[in-house]
Structures are given as C-alpha cells and as structure tokens.
Design goal:
It contains 21 helices and eleven strands. The chain has helices at about 1-20, 25-35, 40-45, 55, 75-80, 120-145, 150-165, 170-185, 215-220, 225-235, 240-255, 290-305, 310-320, 325-335, 340-355, 360-365, 370-380, 390-410, 420-435, 450-465, 470-475; strands at about 85-90, 95, 100-105, 110-120, 190, 200-205, 210, 260, 270, 275-280, 285.
Amino acid sequence: MRTLQVLRSILRVGLARLANKYDWQHEMARQCQQLGGVYIKFLQMLAVHSSTKHIVEKLGVDTAFEQVSYEYIDVGTELGALVEHFQFISAEPFAAGSYGQVYRATLRDGQDVVIKILRPSLKKTLKADLRLLRLIGRVSSWFMQSSMVDFYTMAREFSRATWAETNYRLEAQSGERIRAYYERYGTLVIPRSYMELTTRTALVQEYVGGVSISALEQKQSEGFRIDDMVRASVGSDVWTQLQTMGTEMLLATVYADYLMIDPHPGNVRLLPDNKVALLDFGLTARAPTNRSAFAELIHEMRMLYEDNFRAGSFAVAMLAYFDTELHDALEHIAQEKSDDYAVSLSGFIDRFVSSQTRQVQLQSYLSDKQLFQVFTQVLNQGNKLGIRISEENAFLQRSMSMFLSVIRSISDAHVEDVYAPIIRHCLTKVDDEIRTRGITQSSTHREISPERAFEVAANWLAAIAERDRKMYQFITTRRYA
C-alpha cells in the first residue's frame, strides 16, 4: 500500500514536469509532505540548504515540518535486562521526534538521565521508505541535470545518515567522540552517553537542564524578549551564548575530526554561566575534505560582513569548498601552465560580474548579508559555474545554514538587529584563530591525478558550454581554462 502511494506520487511529479503546467519541484515537496515520516525529514534537509530551500519555502514555514504525536512504548520491555540499572523511569515521554521518544529517568546511583527509544512503528516501514525515497531522488535528478545538488546523491546520503541516526549505539559513539573534543576547551557542553546501557534502539544519556532555543522561539513569537527570558531562567546572556556556539562550531569544522551537523533549535539548550549544550548526535559528519578551502571561505565571509565584498575571491572560495575535485583539477591544470588558478578565476569572475545587469539584486543580498544567496542567485545563478556539491559538504553546508537560520529567526523577532553583529563576531574570531594556529589538512583529502584533472576540467567546460554559452565564450576568450 505504501509503495503504491509513493509510486502515485512519483507519477504526479513526472507528469507535472513533462506537462510544464506548474512547478513540478513544488509538487514533489507537496507529495513528500503528505507521505510524512522520513519524507518530512528529507524536506527539512532541503529547507535549510541554500540550493534547494526555495522548493520548500513555497509550502509555507509551518507546513514544512511535521507535528509528531506520542505513541505508547513500554520502556522497560525495550530496555530488557538493562532496566535493573534504573530506580525510576517516567511513564510518559517529555519530548518526541520523527524517529524517537525521550523519557526522564534516574539511575541506581541517583544520576538523572534521559532515555531515547526508537519508535516501534518506524522499524516496520523505514527500510522500504528509504528505498522509495532514493527512487524519488533518482527521478528528480533526471529533471535537474544542471543543479548544484544532485537529488539522487542527497537522497542516498540522507538514507545513509538516517540508518546511522536510527542506530542509537552509533549515535552514542558519535556523541562521545564529539564530547572528547569539546572537553578540551570547556566551551560547549556535550552530555555523556552511557555506552554500557545503550542498545541499537535505546539510548541513555546524562540529563542536561537549561532551556531549549525552540521553547524560547515559541515564547518570542508571543511577544516576549528572548534576552529577558534567558536572563530570568538561567541567568545567562543569550547573545554571548550564541556567539560562543557559532564560534566553537566553526572552529570544530577546521580542527575536529567529527562534527555535529544538526544544530536545530530543539537540539540547543542554554545553560547557566553562559554555557551552551548540544544534544542529539544522530547526524554527524567527518571534517571537510578540504579544510584549507573552508578556512578561506570563512575569511571571505568575514570580508563580506566587513563590507569589503570581493566577488571573485568569494566565488573561488565557495567553489573550492563545495566542489573540491573541480577546484583541485583547475589548480592542477593551472600549475601545468605556470598560472595562479585562484587569481585567474577570481579576476575572471570579477570581470564577469561587473558586466552583468543584476547589480541591484546583488546589492540587496549584500546589504542583508545573505551570503549563500549572493553565490547561488547572482554569482552562480543557474549553476553557471558547473559546480556539483559533494555528499559530505552538502550536509556540512546544511549545518551552517541551519545555524544561520536560527540566529536570523531570533534576530527578526527582536527589536534590535543582532544577526549581523553575532555572525561578524564569530567569523572574525574564527578567522583570527585560524591564522594564528594554522591548519592541518584533513586525512580524507586526496591528490588528484593528471588524467583525472583533465577529465574533470573538460567535463566542466562542456557543462558550461551547454548551460551558459555567454559564460563559456567569456572564459575561452579571456584565456581562463
């Protein structure tokens, strides 16, 4: 029955695309919304990705997220023999998500903990739903050949991440890795995972108090000031806390081996003494393939926030971070020609942008500090640069976009503009720290072979020639590539 429902949805999307009568991308999102469950989670990923969030925006903010109800779970039965380690387990959950429900509990030694139990209903449908979601991704990718993000790749990576997110043993291991990193600095609080009490379907973690950003946002929408609420509830300065969170998460992208990539409002708790706790490590990622590229992107973002925007340098940094293989290929070929790839491409983009007529839109994005829109809607509109974001970097960019959206939503509901000062503070501090400490390249970064470099570059030029003839002529006549 579920399979037939999904196949009917795919048919509707295909007909919408072939008929060109209405927005087939919106139809795809609407069908996923109706299917619920993991399909809603996939929409949430699209909603925070700069290259795909326009697909979900048309549904409306409230309808893009599923309201999850509780289902009855016998926690004692799920824990089995491990239940003997607890002196108290609440009968009702205090929180619920698409995948699990969370219960308060106390260990025999008096330690307060939480128990997250995987929803039994999810176990019955997850495998089939992920297989069908990959099918939806493959169909969508046929219609979006020129997109920066390949839908099938995103669906496949989402499927892999979901299997990891629903294996609570893996989540506990990820949480402990991330806790070990942050413990060295004492800035962010990561709850301890009790590995000896955790199974594939039940996760036991140290209880963290404080107040969640999601609860604060709800109150803020009712007219309360978020800074007053945080000061009254935990005695902390929320602006300092958000600066700390942003700074430490960006630094971790450069210096940690594993990253928490799901900083949505429900996973962030504000604590006393200006501390911030991160919860839920079902979605984690390895460090960027090219840490140097990420560091350069941070620097260019800082320049943007200091009103010193450099279109060429910013675009090159985005290309190097999002499409590492293309960056490495162009750099290799430039070295063969005794050329400086970054300078050549940067200069080319500066000239190309100055020849365009969309300066008003560019200035609008710059004044609002919408950095990803600057790239996707102006510098690389229609993906004229032929970039394909890797699976790993798609999820890392999701994390950054999610953090920015949290800060922007808080700022939009606040009397004073706090968004730009917070982000500028984070970028400045991280950029200065990187230039002081230096960078060790990620172990996952591999050198590109000469044969592969020329193959990638040739395919890149062919793709540009196909989708933007004017830009192809601009490249070839200005001697770049």
